């Protein structure tokens, strides 16, 4: 354990700072596909009974009309966050007509590319922009990859905690700049250590063969419909789907907020010849928002993002440039198909300890060699993380994954103890012990359990995921919301529909001008 980490833990162990640790905030965004009773992708529009995907604060769509996204409020206790997520699921299941929520991150058997429905958001200017953006994603990456689903875990330390650390370290930066710098330092450490999350929580070692659309691969055949890798943890986070030449050179290593924002702004403003050749419009129809490396900043695929709540009409990069980093969004978590919500409280408690460790541990800038090692360690773990004796690269030397994992868990245990002292009890220590057991016995990992289930039941990936989807549906439908809760959700539905209608009724201007102004809004930011 570094001296800096020890000093920070000692400081936060004092009574006043210790109480602040109970005020960390947690939010979850869970994506999941709607499927029919046979597990086929739903081709129906987003159900009106769920409200407007454009304006509903908790129930929206991601890429496809069939790819739902559930968004919780930010809560101090992750148990409350999961309760929020649970209620959203129960409401949705009360409104789904004969459909199921797919239990896995990797999709079911998909129809051909042309048939997969892109999400629509109505006729407002912003609604049309969201649709054209998704058309651009289809053009650039294909629709199949966009049907992968995951769990996004949002986490922040209390705003009042950063000045305590800043004062103790005599840092001359402003409070805002210090907070942003420390969140960026957290992200650097996340890059260093997130391979551990993929080992512990990766849950997608297999997929339906049709996902690859006949492209060459190095996967093995489990049955006539299922491909897999025997030691894989998360094919979702591998290079099977998330490949794009345009983004190949866009790998910010998060050495400062300014450099991160500058790299994104450059990508949004730099033409990419193959996209230029296609153009933005054809026969008066929009194909993509622009012909640059990425259309908007959210197109950059990353396992973690610095975030700031945006004002109405404000872009994420504008919010970060104006007011700094407010929280981080962890984007690499697979949906656990054994869990109705795709994640449970034990996982959340460990994530809190892991992320706080990343925030408090020394985090020097990432040089090119270490940055590449971070990427390679991550990719190696998602493809063969359970391989006995697997080695990763640390400081230019090979180290066994199991050895490094235990060393990390030893350090994180100190942080878990701090959180338990803050909250009372030992829930974080128990969560860490559950992860240590997975390091000792890879058969306990979700990825190993998925493959064991496929073999035990002699079923395909699709058969397994559909069986789990039906089990989860029974779980949620067997616990209907109260009348008061249903009324509250129904009010949200009606309000969202009214807001979209008002937006469409009162908008002014034409779409071409709107897109031009939207593009200009990021290029004019001073970094």
Low-confidence stretches: none
In the CATH hierarchy, the third-tier topology is known as Creatine Kinase, Chain A, domain 2
What structural category characterises the helix and strand content? alpha+beta
Mean pLDDT: 95
CA-based gyration radius: 23 Å
The number of helical elements comes to 18
Question: What is the domain total for the residues?
Answer: 1
What is the rounded distance between the termini?
Answer: 35 Å
Bulk shape: globular
CATH architecture: 2-Layer Sandwich
**In percent terms, what proportion of residues is strand?**
5-15%
Strands, total number: 14
- CATH top level is Alpha Beta
Helicity, as a percent range: 40-55%
Largest sheet descriptor? 7 strands, antiparallel
Enzyme class: ligase
Keywords: ATP-binding, Glutathione biosynthesis, Ligase, Nucleotide-binding
Catalytic activity: L-cysteine + L-glutamate + ATP = gamma-L-glutamyl-L-cysteine + ADP + phosphate + H(+)
Domain Glutamate--cysteine ligase: 11-379
What does this structure look like?
With 527 residues, the protein is an alpha+beta fold. The chain has helices spanning 3-12, 15-20, 78-95, 125-141, 161-169, 175-193, 195-201, 257-269, 273-278, 316-323, 345-360, 368-384, 401-423, 427-440, 446-457, 461-477, 483-506, 511-523, and strands spanning 25-35, 59-61, 67-71, 100-101, 151-156, 206-208, 220-223, 226-228, 281-282, 285-286, 304-307, 327-333, 391-394, 397-400. Strands 1, 2, 3, 4, 5, 11 and 12 form a seven-stranded antiparallel sheet that branches. A three-stranded antiparallel sheet has the order 6-8-7, with no helix packed on it. A two-stranded antiparallel sheet has the order 9-10. Helix 7 packs parallel to helix 12 (368-384), helix 11 (345-360) packs across helix 13 (401-423) and helix 13 runs antiparallel to helix 14. The relative contact order is 0.16. The mean pLDDT is 95.
